[in-house]
Design brief:
Layout: H1 3-11, H2 17-21, E1 28-30, E2 33-36, H3 46-56, E3 62-66, E4 70-71, E5 76-77, E6 80-85, E7 90-95, E8 98-103, H4 114-123, E9 129-132, H5 139-147, E10 152-157, H6 160-172, E11 179-183, H7 186-195, E12 202-205, H8 215-219, E13 227-236, H9 242-253, E14 256-268, E15 273-284
Parallel strand pairs: 2-3, 9-10, 9-12, 10-11, 12-13
Antiparallel strand pairs: 1-2, 3-6, 4-5, 7-8, 13-15, 14-15
The structure holds S-adenosylmethionine.
S-adenosylmethionine binds at residues 70, 73-75, 108, 134, 136, 156-159, 162, 185-187, 206-208, 232.
């Protein structure tokens, strides 16, 4: 029996027929916390629903309600609220052999990006230098640091709260030798790296909206033999090259030759919209 059917069975005496139909089909778990989304018509029954969820799943210690989106430059959860159990939003979420420590009320964690966190690792070759321009709490950096033979990852993060977790996560996953955390705006921090002679085999540009204003900085890290840039954004499925074409225009205007190696739709982002990643190979024209 599915989660929704179970809830429906237990709550049929306490909810109306309409409310029963609107119960959620699933939930997100982070460590021992369950995060649910509820239809607005169920909000006045949120405590009963949360208590029932707790009773059904003994490994869950708290239930939180997610009523918002991911907002702003820091990509923070807009509205996550405690509902039942033990009130403690701090988690140590385990995924793919990595511990991600963070506060679920302040930091986003998309389970929909799990495939991408694993996939990027598979592309990394021994001895690579990587710059993770929008590192967050280490979503990609930790996974690559742990499961590849990368040499060095420069992980740049602007939000002081995320940066603090990034530093802690590097430590608790024992990746101090591979990951160098940098607190600051990648627009300036990348230029400091490139001016100091750092060139990258791979640059990760994982943020929404597509970080078009940071393309020139990313290109400044290009190696003579070429560099891979993983560029993210949200596109209409029927027009999925639009962001790549923007990238191409900027790169060509400043003398870079680029090639689209592949692209992936990661997850749905609303009706007709998809989170996309482009794997772009770039090389300075002058070197060819
Ligand atoms: C959370 S991850 C992105 C996950 C997902 N792709 C999304 O945007 O919903 C992006 C991180 O980039 C950070 N960030 C945003 N602008 C930045 C900048 N200019 N320099 C460095 N980090 C930045 C945010 O604080 C955030 O932690």
């Amino acid at each position: 029996m599915g989660f929704k059917q179970k809830l429906q069975k237990i709550l049929k005496e306490r909810l109306t027929v309409e409310e029963i139909k609107l119960l959620p089909r699933g939930f997100q778990t982070l460590d021992k916390i369950m995060i649910i989304k509820l239809h607005p018509k169920l909000l006045n029954k949120k405590e009963i629903i949360a208590e029932t969820c707790l009773e059904q799943l003994p490994y869950i210690k708290s239930v939180y309600l997610n009523q918002g989106k991911i907002k702003g430059q820091f990509r923070e959860p807009e509205n996550i609220r405690f509902l039942a159990g033990i009130e403690d939003p701090n988690v140590e979420h385990k995924e793919h052999g990595i511990i991600y420590r963070f506060n679920i009320e302040k930091i986003m964690f998309s389970k929909g990006n799990l495939f991408e966190r694993k996939y990027l690792v598979s592309l990394v070759k021994k001895g690579e230098t990587i710059v993770d321009m929008f590192a967050g709490i280490g979503y990609f950096s930790l996974s690559i640091g742990k499961h590849s033979q990368v040499s060095t990852i420069y992980s740049i993060e602007l939000n002081p709260v995320s940066y603090e977790y990034l530093v802690q996560n590097i430590k608790i996953n024992h990746l101090e030798e591979k990951i160098i955390p940098i607190h600051g705006n990648c627009k300036e921090e990348v230029m400091k790296l490139s001016k100091s002679g750092i060139q990258a085999d791979r640059v990760i540009m994982g943020v929404f909206p597509a970080p078009k204003d940071y393309i020139k900085e990313a290109l400044s890290l290009t190696k003579a033999t070429g560099t891979y840039i993983h560029y993210e954004g949200v596109v209409d499925k029927d027009n999925d090259l639009v962001l790549y074409n923007e990238f191409l225009k900027i790169a060509e205007d400043i003398e870079y030759k680029i090639r689209l190696d592949s692209k992936r739709l990661i997850k749905s982002y609303g009706p007709g919209l998809y989170h996309i990643v482009y794997d772009i190979f770039v090389k300075k024209r002058i070197n060819n």
